[in-house]
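Hallway conversation turned thread

IA: we were arguing at lunch whether anyone had actually written out Fatty-acid--CoA ligase end to end. Turns out nobody had. So, for the record, here is the sequence (510 residues) and right after it the structure tokens. Reply here if something looks off.
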Amino acid sequence: MYLTQSLHRDMQTRPDDIATITGDRRRTVRELHDRVSRLAGALQNLGISKDDRVAYLGRNSDYFHEFYLGTFWADAVVNPVNTRWSAKEIAYSLDDSSTRVIMADETIRPHLDEIRALYPHVQTLIWTGSGPAPAGAILYEDVLDGATPVADARRGGESLAGLFYTGGTTGFPKGVMLSHANLFVGALGSCIGRFVTPGAIFLHAAPMFHLADFGAWAITTLTGGVHVSAPSFEPEQVFEAIRRHSVTHTLLVPAMLQMLVDSPLRPHADVRSLRQISYGGSTITQAVLERAQDAWPHVAFVQAYGQTELSPVTALLGPQDHVAPAPKARLRSAGVAAPHSEIRIVDPATGATLPANEVGEIVSRGGHVMLGYWNKPEETAKAIRHGWLHSGDLGYLDEDGYLFVVDRLKDMVISGGENVFSAEVENALARHQAVAACAVIGLRDDKWGERVHAVVVLKAGETVTESELRDHARQFVAGYKVPRSMEFVDALPLTSTGKVQKNILRERYQ
């Protein structure tokens, strides 16, 4: 199993078909094959050899596609860098991975001097941006023009494919080591589960450095699809790309999905070509999902649950579970174990398997479980025990094997001795018509140990009082779960993948 395999097959079966689209630029499979083999040759000329790391720091584009395939082709390891990190976090990931060659565009420019000061060991900066290259950088197209194509190393199997650094919301990020086999198994199983279906014209609207989008990238690549890139997530760009390129599939995190549904452009947007929206990366409220289904009744919805350490999917809620006659309550679930995955619910303290409908830690096993954390054997041993990846998420399985995720272990609120799952309270608050987004955290309280605190963003032009929201929440959750304190804000702090940074909220309100 090697991730460049599909490019060889496509050269035999569809060399003149379109492979990638970025703006007005279209490249065929034949052009892609030539550019990838030249990039691999260029990387080797720059001193990249077996197992070396190559980083990419930039916006979504066809260059990202070439970076992945070209690095694998050169027998090296990819290190896609989060563009929203601080210079210190970026430098840390480069230093931790001993990365010497970086491909980058304009997104690195504001941080470049500081990165170079913090990590002076970058040997080569390859510039993929459209603006003037920084001092010392070499232009990407010049690199390709001066390179000779090389044979594919056909790096695969258990060899390391990439270091995918986790979000860095608590301390510095960890490098998740994923093999070609990990990513291949995850892609094939997710394809069977309809995360992305074969022959897709797939829009990369979510960040391509994130493993959720990489999972969709791998399926689209393996099944002969077309990659369309939106440089960044803007509703206008997304709607225009769908119309212009007849996009059939895309992946969105819940925050993105909500932005599209709420956009004033939505009623007039031409999305007739769109067949499926896959969503995941963070918890979605049932209210947002139902509004999206109402907005686009012709579109199938698929939810994926997992994490970077699971390549990245371990459970899927398929299209058939989003519509009648499936029970409506099933929309609150994360689906069933994906075809390549096994899931259990265990007692966090003892590791014993828990019965149906009892909340515990979600653990997974299969060929998609990471090799481990880069240079962190102790943390690897904590996360992987007897072959099972311990997710840090709390949830339960119902009698039919559907997984319900209720909270992160670290986000559960214990108030007056009772466990309060923040996602449950957030879902109740989000059902109010005035609420655009919300987050629930636990704050220290002299009487209750912790109190339930809600941070709420209202829709434009809407008003609601704390008392009204509490009364609304009591319709759906027990009294001890209703927020005892509340704050209205203009926006929630989000990671680049749309997850609420609750650690920041806890620090702010504590």
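OS: looked through it. Residues 28-173 form a domain with the Rossmann fold fold (CATH 3.40.50.980).
IA: good, adding that to the notes. The mean pLDDT is 93.
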